[in-house]
Amino acid sequence: MSADVKTILLVEDNRGDIRLIQEAFKSTGARCEVVVTRDGMDAMSYLRQEGEYLNVPLPDLVLLDLNLPKKDGREVLAEIKADENLKHLPVVVLTTSLNEEDIVNSYDLHVNCYIAKSRNLQQLFKIVRGIQAFWLETATLPVRS
């Protein structure tokens, strides 16, 4: 991993999941900052650097729940991948849905990876370690703008 701190945008509305995912990333020792938006509208404002997010850098990785208020994750994914300024961002769907239609539709929308969240704490930490190891250490990510 490069010496710089990676930014992860976690788009998640469940406070418990947010806390657990943040703790899981801390436990990996990864040099990363987990920024949270709690609905799809806020996520798109962040990514488009609008309003309160005017000067934020784009994240290195987006972790996206599908079931969100205001604008669901499916819509957010479609908007990211259709936007010339955002489509290069790696997006990992991290959701509780094992619905085959959600999985196929996410890949049709060019998601980079689809992962089902576990309610088992040990398994969730293992999932986050896998995300950290692959996306923050192994994969070569596009340069942030």
UniProtKB/TrEMBL annotation:
Protein name: Response regulator
Residue stretches making up the Response regulatory domain: 7-132
UniProt cross-references to Pfam families, sorted A to Z: Response_reg
Family matches, as InterPro entries: CheY-like_superfamily (IPR011006), Sig_transdc_resp-reg_receiver (IPR001789), TCS_response_regulator (IPR052893)
Record flagged with keyword Phosphoprotein: yes
Residue list for modification 4-aspartylphosphate: 65
PROSITE patterns in the cross-refs: RESPONSE_REGULATORY
Single Gene Ontology BP annotation: phosphorelay signal transduction system
Organism whose genome encodes this protein: Chamaesiphon polymorphus CCALA 037
